[in-house]
């Protein structure tokens, strides 16, 4: 159906008992580029399965400060996650860090970069996402945002001159500061992404706001070609809940309609 990448995200994908089976199927049996993003707590227990069947492994590590990290995560996990990252890197396994910049984490950005540098790990920075969810009325993203995006970009640009494995997208930060999806860059998640939920159903238009569900016993191709699905795909990005959304994964797939920005995004990853 045209899909090129399978990405296992959360919640926490390593909580699944069948994660090895899923990774092996997607990576080895059907040959997809396979990525996995984890909070890092179970890395030590699952690393053998992950390393055999993933092309891209990333750990969410927002800040190298115990108090701020635990406050952000809502659980005392800092020491365990950091230890697991060091363990995996010591095994010679390629790993990436995903770091979300907020008012709190930006204060410790030098320490976070130093941690990545000490292990020679790529670190990807992005602003905190604003994601409208059907089961929430408000988002904390606005409270956590840094208003001065130019200050963040200046800092990251300076640090990248010193440590080349820092990655960030200027265009995404600017898109984010302008309020997310708009008439120019409209979300195209429904036409570019198959969002598979843990119960094996498909969510349209996106994982965060479901207007239509395709159940696991239904024919996916037929249901995606139905009048209801085509109407959702056509209207994707035009609903009120889309306008304030600025989540990175939906932004990236929407750049397929903007080749210039897509090329810039790819360049920022090299």
How does this structure look, described?
It is a single chain. The chain is of the alpha/beta class. The protein folds into two domains: 5-181, Aldolase class I (TIM Barrel), CATH 3.20.20.70; 182-270, no CATH class. The chain has 14 helices and nine strands. The strands form two sheets. A six-stranded parallel beta sheet has the order 1-2-3-4-5-6. A three-stranded antiparallel beta sheet has the order 7-8-9. The protein starts with a strand and ends with a helix. The model has no long low-confidence stretch (mean pLDDT 90).
Give a quick summary of the entry.
With 270 residues, the chain is α/β, with parallel strands linked by helices. It has 14 helices and 9 strands. The longest helix is centred in the middle third of the chain and has 14 residues, at 149-162.
Shape: globular
Overall mean pLDDT? 90
Radius of gyration: 19 Å
What's the CATH topology label of the largest domain? TIM Barrel
Strand content: 5-15%
Count of beta strands: 9
Main CATH class of the largest domain: Alpha Beta
* N-end to C-end Cα span: 28 Å
CATH architecture of the largest domain: Alpha-Beta Barrel
């Amino acid at each position: 159906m045209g899909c090129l990448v399978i990405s296992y995200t959360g919640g926490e994908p390593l909580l699944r008992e069948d994660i090895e089976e899923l990774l092996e199927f997607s990576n080895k049996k059907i040959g997809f580029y396979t990525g996995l993003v984890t909070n890092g707590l179970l890395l030590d227990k699952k690393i053998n399965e992950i390393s055999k069947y993933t092309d891209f492994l990333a750990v969410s590590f927002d800040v190298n400060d115990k108090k701020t990290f635990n406050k952000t995560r809502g659980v005392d996990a800092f020491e365990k996650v950091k230890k697991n990252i060091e363990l995996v890197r010591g095994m010679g396994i390629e790993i990436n860090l995903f770091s979300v910049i907020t008012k709190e984490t930006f204060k410790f950005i030098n320490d976070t970069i130093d941690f990545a540098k000490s292990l020679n790990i790529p670190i990807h920075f992005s602003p905190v996402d604003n994601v409208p969810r059907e089961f929430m009325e408000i988002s904390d993203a606005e409270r956590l945002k840094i208003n001065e995006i130019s200050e963040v970009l200046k800092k990251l640009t300076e640090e990248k001159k010193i440590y080349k494995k820092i990655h960030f997208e200027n265009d995404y930060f600017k898109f984010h500061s302008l309020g997310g999806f708009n008439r120019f860059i409209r979300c195209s998640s429904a036409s570019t992404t198959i969002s598979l939920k843990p119960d094996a159903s498909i969510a349209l238009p996106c994982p965060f706001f479901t207007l239509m569900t395709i159940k696991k016993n239904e024919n996916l191709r037929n249901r995606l070609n139905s009048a209801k699905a085509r109407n959702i795909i056509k209207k994707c990005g035009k609903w009120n809940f889309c306008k304030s959304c600025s989540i990175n994964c939906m932004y990236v797939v929407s750049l397929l309609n903007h080749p210039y920005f897509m090329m810039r995004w790819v360049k920022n990853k090299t």
